[in-house]
């Protein structure tokens, strides 16, 4: 069997291996073989050169790659160490026996030991973990058992107790305990990562939240007003016993139903507008009518709706409702009573005003009768004496008093009768009033006797002039009851 290159050349020259060729063909065959060997030598030299160049480049490339990889690994290692050091949880890298291979700063602070004190030591010489009931995912395995068995475990509620170290040169003694949550994660090389955190603050917050929830529940369930918790769609999530008692609705029957089912259709737009305000983060107050009827009328609810917030976002409503139906009925009754009372007061006031006016009129009449002569309507003796006394008491007072009586009056009165006499006295009074000023006083003392008080007359001469004018006035006939009379007054100053 020939080499494939030789077989290819023989076939190319149409030579048979069993019969020898002629000289020309043989010569041609030898030249072809020669060319093939020369081409092979060239290819081999080129390949050797290429291999030499590739080896140098590959060595340089490997050197660069190794240098870059080591730098990248160192950089990533530094990043990992930085992350572990600033991690907000304690982290320890342990082998299956519990020997500490790595510990971060937060774990140092929680355990109370520096890294150089605890590295290489068995961690169980420094601490113990007590699992609380139902707090461990691997409920049948302890922390140590999980570590030795390369089992992962997690606890949300355990207690870490720091023990007195068993080594003689241990610098610290601390027996304090605190609650922790932890995770133990095994690695492929048999080691494990122990991550833990102090949950004292969280438990205190949870305790306070439970107490706050208990206080809230006590307040809500003990409130006398109905309180509802609604979602953003207005559907009921919860209501308190006061609402259940007032509406006679069980919680399981109403949860999931819409708030608008409680009220009459005519008031649903009022409630919808109120809830729109609450969605904007505002408190809304309005009144609604319920389906429950009292005294034949729809019950009236006083409603206050406030937003339930998570941060700045409104996530639901709290609705405080008070049934004010009885108060409204009482207010309506009081309003009617008030209107009736006001009407009665107005009527009574008018009656009292009329009575007051009547009394004032009677008083004025009585006062008039006290100060006036009932026959002639001029002032009487009593009034005249009071005015005279007051004038006499006044300082620098100036005035004149004239006394008058009329001759033959008694004769006329006796002969013609008292009716004519009375009419004549009235005529005399009117004639006297026409002779004096408005501020002067004309008074009848009795019978046909009259007095005049003339004020502010500075001298006797003027007083005499007034008296003479009065005397002349009576020269004119007096007419009374169809008769004419002439009376001469007698006067004195």
User: Which range best describes the helical content: under 10%, 10-25%, 25-40%, 40-55%, 55-70% or over 70%?
Assistant: 40-55%
**pLDDT average, as an integer?**
80
Q: Taking Cα atoms only, what radius of gyration do you get, to the nearest Å? A: 67 Å
Strand order of the largest sheet: 2-1-6-5-4-3
Distance between the termini: 198 Å
The count of helical stretches stands at 14
Low-confidence stretches: none
Q: Describe the biggest sheet? A: 6 strands, antiparallel
Walk me through the structure.
- There is one protein chain.
- By secondary structure, the protein is of the alpha+beta class.
- It is 47% helix and 24% strand.
- It has 14 helices and 18 strands.
- The protein has helices at 4-12, 23-86, 105-111, 115-118, 143-148, 200-222, 241-247, 251-254, 268-279, 325-371, 381-393, 409-416, 418-433, 460-473; strands at 90-94, 100-103, 127-131, 153-162, 177-186, 192-198, 226-231, 236-239, 284-294, 297-310, 313-323, 379-380, 399-406, 441-446, 449-455, 478-480, 483-485, 489-492.
- β16 (478-480) and β17 form a beta hairpin.
- The chain is rod-shaped, with a radius of gyration of 67 Å.
- The termini are far apart.
- The mean pLDDT is 80.
